[in-house]
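Quick check before the chapter quiz. The format below is the same one you will see on the exam, so make sure you can read both the input and the output lines.
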Amino acid sequence: MSKNLPIFVLALILSSSAGAAIYRWVDADGRIFYSDSPPKQGGAKSVKIQPNTVAPVAPLPKAKPAAAAGEKVTLYTATWCGYCKKARAYLESRNIPFDDVDVETTDRGRREYREMGGNGVPVIFVGSQRMDGYDQGSLQAMLKAGGW
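Here is the expected output.
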């Protein structure tokens, strides 16, 4: 019997707590209370508590790497342009990789800007979508449509 005594004591403890009553009541302010003893003023209802159970959960889908998440983003800028800085800061804040092309200081920038018929900066491309100037809401919509 001494060999089974610890198991018996554990079973006794667990069964006594499982059978304990839980009371629920609402006070005058509408707050809900739960306790193992009823309130002195009465009005509590006994509540049956179900033990917690754990259900199997489906694994989360694997996230795409940020660099492969959406269409290519290209930002045509000039160093003095305040809206270019805002567009750049917004893309960086969202961790969206982009190609920043200066249209004044690089041969590539001057050539591509001329070919696209640029007339001001920034010019922002998300895939084939184009924005002349900068508007955060419009850029956000473009990025969403482009898979970002």
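If your answer matched, good. The chain has two domains: 20-48, 67-145.
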